[in-house]
Amino acid sequence: MAPWRDIVPFMLHPVRSARYVVSRFCYPMVLRARPGVTVRGKVEVREFPLISIAAGGRLVLGRGVKLNSRNEDYHINMHSPIKLVVGAGARLEIGDDTRGHGPCIHALQDIRTGKRCLIAANTQIIDSSGHDLALSNAAERIYTKGQSKPVAIGDNVWIGANCIILPGVTVGSGSVIAAGSVVTSDIPPSVLAGGNPAIVLRSYPTGSPA
Predict the structure, then answer these.
(1) What does the DSSP 8-state code read for residue 141?
(2) I need a surface site. Which of 38, 86, 104, 173 has the fewest CB within 10 A?
């Protein structure tokens, strides 16, 4: 049961508060009971995410993870609730204290984020493109499923709004991906990267001010 001090502020808005309190304090218990889900500590869920886990898939949520689908008090417009999809035999792991605000993370093989990451609204993180290019036989493309390649995101990474992180990419710890970027290749640690395709725009020493 949620502490009384956590519930009282929302009692002034009973219609909204009922939805918020139920999603924030009850849904983590539902998550723990779901097959294929490991919750390593307290998880905060704002509004109900979309979660799909195929047979043999594993979703691992670290301590202090925040899954936010609540557009109402987010600082930019969030188009959709957070969506976590785990394919058969795949693994999706979200590290301790990482915050996701309405991204879609779709793992058909392996996607892992480090600790204390910020993943902003409308970002797409995928380890498979869904279809092969099949440039020599385009008529067969619709029947292909695409090759999966693991995605790894280091600790303390900030991914701006509306980014796309493509299969096989590693984003180094401490780096920032500018809003609207398409990441097609590895990004080293402690850099600011952006663009389509994303390139390194600036490097900085670990621990230095912005």
Answers:
(1) G
(2) 38
Tokens of 107: 């793992």
Spatial contact of 55 and 34, defined as CB atoms under 8 Å apart: no
Q: Name the token pair of 182.
A: 């398409």
C-alpha torsion angle, residues 97, 101, 105, 110 (rounded to 10) = -10
106 catalytic residue (yes or no):
no
Can you tell me whether residue 78 is helix, strand or coil? coil
Reduced to 3 states (helix: H, G, I; strand: E, B; else coil), residue 188 is coil
Q: Is 57 helix (H, G, I), strand (E, B) or coil?
A: coil
- Burial of 120-131, coded b for 16+ CB within 10 Å and e otherwise, reads bbbbebbbbbee
Are 190 and 150 in contact, with CB atoms under 8 Å apart? Answer: no
> 140, 139, 144, 172: which is closest to 158 by C-alpha?
172
Task: Give the tens place of pLDDT for each residue, 102-161.
Answer: 999 999 999 999 999 999 999 999 999 989 888 899 999 999 888 899 999 999 999 999
Using CA atoms, how far apart are residues 133 and 130, in angstroms rounded to an integer?
10
Residue 67: per-residue pLDDT: 94
Answer for the pair 66, 85: CB distance below 8 angstroms, yes or no: no
Question: What span, in angstroms and rounded, lies between the C-alpha atoms of 155 and 174?
Answer: 6
pLDDT tens, position by position, 30-63: 677 678 999 998 899 988 889 999 999 999 999 9
Pairing of strands 170-171, 151-153: parallel
Out of 13, 101, 106, 131, the active site residue is 131
